[in-house]
Each structure stands twice: as structure tokens, then as C-alpha cells.
Amino acid sequence: MKISWIDILLIILGLILAYQLILKILGGSWQTEAIIIGLLMMNLGLTWKLALNFYKLDMRFNRHIDWHKTTSFKE
Fold first, then answer.
1. 1-41 pLDDT, tens per residue?
2. Is residue 75 predicted with pLDDT exceeding 60?
3. What is the dihedral of CA 43, 53, 9, 14, to 10 degrees?
4. What does the pLDDT read at residue 8?
5. Is 46 in contact with 10 (CB distance < 8 Å)?
6. CB 6 within 8 A of CB 49
7. What whole-number distance in Å separates Cα of residue 54 and Cα of residue 56?
8. What's the rounded Cα separation, in Å, for the pair 37 and 16?
9. Three-state SS across the chain?
10. Whole-number pLDDT of residue 45
């Protein structure tokens, strides 16, 4: 399984935000607004990553369907 640089960035961002949330619960760290902005950026990154994976899957599916169309006419 190949891990892309986007996955690595999202994992690092998630770990940093989880650490900052724990520190915030225990009494201090980043400001609340900074944590919320970080969570929104992570949400945007995950949404972009899922859309990219869906697009790649859709392209593979279309090629597969096209393959079936071409082989059915040969028989």
C-alpha cells in the first residue's frame, strides 16, 4: 500500500490537533479559534482526499465498463 504525501500531511495535522485539544482540555495551549481553524483545514483536506479517491475509482470503473462493452461485441 502506497502512502501519498497528502496522507502524511493529514496524519501529522491530525496528531498536532489532537495534542492541542488535549492540552486545551487540561488547561491551556492554542487559542480556541486556532484549534477550530485547524480542524476546519483538516476537514477540508480529508474532503479533498476523499473526492480525489472517488474520482480515481470512477475512472477505473468507467474503463472496466468500456472493456465489457468492447468484449461483448467481439463474441
1. 667 887 888 889 889 888 888 888 888 777 888 888 888 98
2. no
3. 40
4. 87
5. yes
6. yes
7. 5
8. 13
9. CCCCHHHHHHHHHHHHHHHHHHHHHHCCCCCHHHHHHHHHHHHHHHHHHHHHHHHHHHHHHHHHHHHHHHHHHHC
10. 87
C-alpha cell at 25: 482540555
Task: List, for residues 34-68, the tens digit of each pLDDT value.
Answer: 888 888 988 898 888 888 877 777 776 677 677 67
Q: CA 55 to CA 58: how far, in whole Å?
A: 5
C-alpha cell at 41: 483545514
Amino acid at 38: G
